[in-house]
Amino acid sequence: MKNKHVGYLILGVTALFFFVVMSFNYALQKIVDTTCTHGTACPMHATTFTQEVLSYGLMGLLVLVSLFIIFFMKDETTVQEMKKDLSTEDKNKKLENLNDEEKSVMNIVLENEGSIFQSDVVKETQLSKVKVTRILDRLEGKQLIERKRRGMTNIVLLK
């Protein structure tokens, strides 16, 4: 979910809570006014005032948090969104100055939407582990891919 939507959701829930708190405070004030016989000197009046200040203060804090989320928090692009951005033109540009082995490895990475385990690259290319490692080193040097350690293997990610 995008941050802006989360901010609007929090703002909507805050508005709902505001009406609940407002009706609760009104009912509590009405009860205190009818049951308290000492007037404003009654300690229940001070308690209701404190309760109102706290509840409205918390509502204000929630509004500020939701507005901060809506206007100032940037959405992070996920790996899935980055994969969608790979147009065929971008793919062709990445493959232009590569030799045949590098092109085959890059095609495998592209076919797998920009991420694949290094062991799967070895299986699909039917090249040795050493050869695939050297090809991936060259591609990483050209800043076309990056490898990240995942347990006992590497995952190859398209940059």
Protein described:
By secondary structure, the chain is mostly helical. The chain folds into two domains: 3-72; 79-158, Arc Repressor Mutant, subunit A (Orthogonal Bundle). It is 69% helix and 9% strand. The protein is built from seven helices and three strands; from the N terminus they run αααααβααββ. A three-stranded antiparallel sheet has the order 1-3-2. Helix 5 (100-111) packs across helix 7 (129-141).
SSE arrangement:
Elements: H1 3-35, H2 43-72, H3 79-84, H4 88-95, H5 100-111, E1 115-117, H6 118-125, H7 129-141, E2 145-150, E3 153-158
Helix pairs in contact: 1-2, 5-7
Summarize, please.
By secondary structure, the protein is mostly helical. The protein has helices at 3-35, 43-72, 79-84, 88-95, 100-111, 118-125, 129-141; strands spanning 115-117, 145-150, 153-158.
Write a concise keyword list for the protein shown above.
single chain, 159 residues, mainly alpha, Arc Repressor Mutant, subunit A, three-stranded antiparallel beta sheet
